[in-house]
Amino acid sequence: MRPRARPRQLVAALKQTIPPQLRELAHWLSGAAALAGCAVVGRWISALLSLPIPGSVVGMLLLLLGMMLYGGVPRGIALVSDLLLRLLALLFLPAAVGFYFLRDLNAGDWLGLLAATILGTLLSLTLCALLLKKLLESADARHNDE
Question: Is residue 52 in some structural domain?
Fold first, then answer.
């Protein structure tokens, strides 16, 4: 009678038989499916509960909760988000083209739009700087503990 293989040995054997490109594609597809699934579920929850929050924001909160429960960023989501971040400038093109159609606004409208843009940018930069400081401090503390 042949001894039974352990599940970890089976997984290791399967990993060796699957080409790396196919594994990378599987990770990418699972990440894209997770992002799209969170977006769809977020929109569904927002519509079902008549929330004043856009469904995409609810989807991002669901994604954040899922990653917190998982304990990190899954490889597939990291692959897809890396690609999306590289193409981020292209995602802003429709918004930039939309400014062309705003030329008929009066001065008060432009002042509000400019103030919102400047304040939003400053707030985003401040929050990113504080987050970076906190992450660097925690990494430094972990490094000093070792």
Answer: yes
